[in-house]
Amino acid sequence: MKRSRPSPLALARAAGLLVVALVLAGCGATRGAIGPAPTPAAGESPVFQHEDFDRFLSRHVDDAGRLAYAAAATDRADLDRYLADLSSASPDSHPERFASEADRLAYWINAYNASVIDRVLAHYPIESVQDVRGPWLARLLPEGAGFFVFETFALGGKRTRLYTLENALIRKRFAEPRIHFALNCASASCPRLPARAFRGETLEVQLARETRRFLAESRNVDIDPEAGVIRLSSIFDWYTKDFARPTGPRRGDAVLVTYLAQALDGAARRRLEACVDCRVEFVPYDWSLNDLPSVGG
Length: 297
Known about the structure:
Blueprint: H1 8-24, H2 51-60, H3 69-73, H4 77-88, H5 101-123, H6 145-148, E1 152-155, E2 158-161, H7 162-173, H8 203-216, E3 221-224, E4 229-233, H9 234-238, H10 252-263, H11 266-274, E5 279-283
Parallel strand pairs: 4-5
Antiparallel strand pairs: 1-2, 3-4
């Protein structure tokens, strides 16, 4: 099942309409407080821990980044504990529990991935997150708005949404294009979901690994000098400006070619060097769920 993903601009418009609708309905802001976030209990580690999410992922994610949602739905105690931790503390509510920028970014990446999983499980079985249509207003908006703009969850004592978390927080605060190879939105065309949680102390190694894995897959980067074409994941189209470097090109395909020239190595880089005047094409997005069917299912 290949479906077109709404562009970030379309989702931004959907998010704006949601704000207007909530204000008119008297519902307040899209990220309302849900009460004070508790401090760590006596004996609890002051450093935010990711072990529960780590255990959950290691049991239910395969090497291809697919998640066994049916099995996870009946074995989610670790995920629920982790979601409770996310709800009670964040780098914003408890900055003392996040010593470095890497610790903070690892938290937000894990929070995004864990919240996506939780929201899928809330509606499972589905074939795609685009099947989550949301309230009547969402049904008037692009496919995907129901899931990314209308589904809510709590982080550090405040409610938020996936669109807000990705664009108003992660992308805004961290000038790190490799997040696009780490954030998983439960789709076949998304970056593969890692079977381990991200951690501040190993984040650089993990982001480098996920970048290599994403760029090495022909579904994401396919350089064909003979045909004169470079085929790229639509992620590169939606977030082109995130891949721009301060001293490099600032617009269009040149941004992506420059990024790839610096990120690729070996045979892939040689193909890119041979791809003089190649046009850039973006691969249609496969929005089917990254589901790992049960044995015999």
